[in-house]
Amino acid sequence: MMRQITDRELHEECGVFGVFGVADAASLAYYGLHALQHRGQEGCGIVSVDRDGVFRREKGPGLVTEVFNEDRLSALRGQTAIGHVRYSTAGGGGSENIQPFLFRHNTGDFALAHNGNLVNSAQLRRYLENKGSLFQSTSDSEILAHLIKKETKYHDRPRIYAIVDALNMLEGAFAFLIMTANRIYACRDKYGLRPLSIGRLGDGYVVSSETCAFDVLGAQFVRDVEPGEIVTIDDHGLRSCDYSMYKRREMCSMEYIYFARPDSDIEGCNVHAYRKESGKLLWREAPVEADIVVGVPDSSLSAAMGYAEASGLPYEMGLIKNKYIGRTFIQPSQAMREKGVRMKLSAVRTIVRGKRVVLVDDSIVRGTTSRRIVMMLREAGATEVHVRIASPPMTNPCFYGVDTSTYDELISAHKNPAEVCREIGADTLAFLSSEALLQAGNRSELCMACFTGRYPTTLYQAVEQANKKINE
Question: Catalytic site residue 450?
């Protein structure tokens, strides 16, 4: 089940991390997952396999530092491991949905971890259940395991053939790590919607949703997994197999705008550099007379720096984020929600008092938090607040793993920019254009479906479900 969201609580489904051929692999996976904690904070897990082919798993709800301790990590023996941090979208929460999943089979045990969302999961689940599959979870990620075992034509051939057949039945966004006793398969959807990168660590390899995790371990970036590709990592090194000849580079634009850490490189483009350039383009498209530029911590700070640099206005820390808040929980009342925003963000009165402020943010979802921040700046003495958003208006739901599942969660789906401006109480409001999103990363393709309504894949049941919610 999809959950309701607050304006600054956009979440992407998860992050995956793998280690092959390195001693104490589970401990390395722990540090890798910690670097990916921003991608999922509801649960995490690690599965390891030793040289005898024995698989071990530890997982639980909570942050990486809450779930794992020295005893749990020491139990995960072996030189190969995969891990996962989760934020629940498709299938909802619950301990049964915490990954990696571990499957026991007479042809060999295996584990898998998934980042993304399958748009044909309902059809595939029904198809598999009619053929006798029994699912242990409500997550769409488990579907791949059943397809690998049920749909292969040749049970006596290497597993890669079964994986190719299974991946060709999936539609949607995914980065999969599949771990067997002797290797890891790193798989990426043919549209290139989700990032997945490979690094070298000593004589072994690491695989990660983001390259920022490589720096923590001292690993050297090797290359990205290409769209429609399976990279086999084993004692032979890296081997490539294309499961699809249909290849696009429709990377989710929200990876650059919001989700990824600024020290990550996605398909050769640094996230901080991308956001800073988008801020410069935002000033060119929507200049305004003001005194200072303030960014909303943390993902908007790079764009605010770019806006300030291009405009010549001073960049100031007019908002401070409380770094000790940790995870965000649903507040029981409106009054508590208001206090919750102030716990996370504070305006610096001596900086904003008497100033015309340009407030740069990465996106507006519901508009509720934007309204509270504008009000906070005015209460701190700002004479004007001009809001500039480093992305286009979010007018359409995402079905690929971002938790905006209905139109009624999106203020820009039913209000134009002038109406949104009045709703959030700003003096002016402007959004970045879709063309500028491509220009900022020197790209010809990005998935901008949440802004444009042009989805790169067939949606199957997703549109019908969204339309049904509108009519209810």
Answer: no
